[in-house]
Write a structure and sequence with these properties.
about 350 residues; mainly beta; Tachylectin-2, Chain A; five-stranded antiparallel β-sheet; 28 strands
Length: about 350
């Protein structure tokens, strides 16, 4: 099943359209355009990996962690799920008949495909039954083998490090060392990881630092120039077109912060710059992926949003180009989702 979603190829010799459009769905003059959403079905919390052969792989919170593949970042084909009923973690509890697994985060580590994800395994109605876990595969399409939990939110069950609602993990390597960011509305945290030759992964407790206040979840870090940029989501992700969820950002000269807004106010104090917020067409614009670079050096961000034109489809997958201003701050369109945009540059 392919999601084509309004990719537009125009006549040779047409003028190149170099800016993304907002506020209209009318056709633009361009060589190739795409329209949001790029995956027109429920698929929150996207994460993206470019494999060694150039193929892009996207994972989201649907159907026991859905897997998609693409050659161009725009046209996506379903490639299965990370787990099925037989292979899902036995620890994961069920919520309305489905295993409670969400927020996947894919990385290629030592030649293996490591998928971090959040898991609900404990008591209903509490945040202490949440954890960060991971699975490993030899191929981005799987099969993935569950390897265990890295962080627990329940003090009665190890590994617990004093951080509650420990979900929405993000993996980054910096100067040859692996790090994990995590947290959801109980503070954002970061720590160095220990990874052995068999891909057993553990937090180094002595390195744990709080990097954000209690307004955030869904963190992501991108290094550009002399800065680390901490992207996160704030607001209520529920409620369809009434959702207040949005993507925000701060930056720091150090991986562990302090991350600040343009005025120097700290994200630890719940201050930030808004990157993407909703409008009359889209709402709930949050939980972005790791940032992806195309072959033309442009930066792209995936995230999810509710679409007023298809309210029953849930949180659909969105793609937007990230531009950088003269002071090095990221911006997306006019601060709202793009309707139609020139496609990423991908070498064939």
């Amino acid at each position: 099943m392919k999601i084509l979603l309004s990719t537009i190829t125009l006549l040779l010799g047409a003028a190149i359209y170099t800016h993304c459009a907002h506020g209209t769905d009318k056709e633009q003059t361009a060589t190739a355009l795409f329209a949001n959403p790029v995956i027109g079905q429920d698929g929150p919390d996207p994460t993206v990996l470019r494999d060694t052969d150039g193929t892009f792989w996207l994972y989201d919170t649907a159907d026991l962690l859905a897997i998609w593949s693409s050659k161009d970042l725009v046209t996506w084909q379903r490639a299965g799920s990370v787990f099925n009923e037989e292979t899902r973690p036995s620890e994961s509890r069920y919520d309305y008949g489905k295993a409670a697994l969400w927020a996947p985060e894919i990385r290629l580590i030592r030649g293996k495909y490591v998928l971090f994800f959040s898991m609900w395994w404990g008591d209903v109605g509490t945040y202490d039954g949440h954890s960060v876990a991971y699975a490993v595969a030899d191929s981005p399409a799987g099969p993935f083998a569950f390897r265990g939990q890295i962080i627990n939110s329940d003090p009665d069950y190890p590994p617990f490090y004093g951080t509650h609602h420990s979900i929405d993990q993000f993996y980054i390597e910096d100067d040859g060392k692996p790090y994990l960011f995590w947290g959801s509305f109980r503070g954002l945290y970061a720590a160095e990881l220990a990874i052995d030759d068999d891909l057993a992964i553990a937090v180094k407790p002595e390195t744990i630092r709080q990097v954000g206040g209690d307004a955030y979840e869904g963190s992501c870090v991108y290094k550009r120039g002399g800065y680390y940029y901490l992207f996160a989501s704030v607001g209520d992700w529920t409620g369809g077109m009434s959702s207040t969820y949005r993507t925000v950002v701060g930056r720091s000269e150090n991986l562990f912060g302090p991350y600040v807004d343009r005025q120097g106010n700290r994200m630890l104090d719940n201050r930030f710059e808004v990157l993407i917020s909703g409008d009359e067409r889209f709402a709930g614009t949050g939980h972005n992926s790791n940032l992806v670079e195309d072959d033309g050096g442009q930066t792209w961000i995936f995230y999810h949003a509710y679409d007023s034109s298809a309210p029953d489809k849930g949180r659909q997958t969105m793609l937007d180009r990230v531009d950088w201003d003269d002071e090095g701050w990221p911006r997306v369109n006019t601060g709202h989702p793009t309707r139609i945009c020139e496609s990423p540059i991908i070498d064939r």
